[in-house]
Amino acid sequence: MSTTYTQLRYHLVFATKYRMPLITSTLRDDLYDYLGGVLRGNGGVLLTAGGMPDHVHLLAGWGTTMPVAEMLKLLKGGSSRWINDQSRTAPDGFSWQEGYGAFTVSASQVPVVRRYILNQEEHHKKVSFVQEFTGLLKKHGVAFNPKDFD
Q1: Model pTM?
Q2: Looking at the domain assignment, is residue 127 inside a domain?
Q3: Is 47 helix (H, G, I), strand (E, B) or coil?
Q4: In terms of DSSP bridges, do strands 45-52 and 9-15 run parallel, antiparallel, or are they unpaired?
Q5: What is the pLDDT of residue 3?
Q6: How many domains does the chain have?
Q7: Which domain holds residue 55?
Q8: 74-96, pLDDT tens digit by residue?
Q9: Is residue 3 part of a domain?
Q10: What would the pLDDT profile of 47-64 be if each residue is shown by its tens digit?
Q11: CATH value at residue 20
Q12: What is the CA radius of gyration of the chain?
C-alpha cells in the first residue's frame, strides 16, 4: 500500500500533583482551551475535555509522527507553565503528577468515552479518582502495581 491511513484517538487522564484540587471552576475552561491549543499546534484535535478539580480527561487525536509520551510532555509541561504564569493557583504553584494514562479509543466508542468524560461530576459522586483510574487500567488490560496508588 502506498498511502498510510490512520484514525488515532486517545483517552488521556492525568492528575494534579498530590491530587490537589487546584483546577478551579474559573480555571477549568481556560485550561481546556489551552490544552486544545497545544493539541492543534502539534497537528492534533481535542474532541472533549472534562474532569474534576484534581484531574483531567481528554479525548484527543493526532497523527503518527508524534509519540504519545511527547504529546503528553507538551500538554502537561506547557499547561503547568501557562497556569503558573497566569498566577492562577495556590502559592506553592501548579504542577501535574509525573505519570498519566493513555488509552486508545475505537471510532465506535468515541461517543461512549465523550459521555463518560462529560459526566465526571456525577461519576465521582460514587467513585474516587484512584478507583476510577485503576478501573480504567483493568478495563484496558494494563498491568499495574496497587502500591502505586497508596
Answers
A1: 0.94
A2: yes
A3: strand
A4: unpaired
A5: 87
A6: 1
A7: 9-149
A8: 999 999 999 998 875 666 789 99
A9: no
A10: 999 999 999 999 999 999
A11: 3.30.70.1290
A12: 15
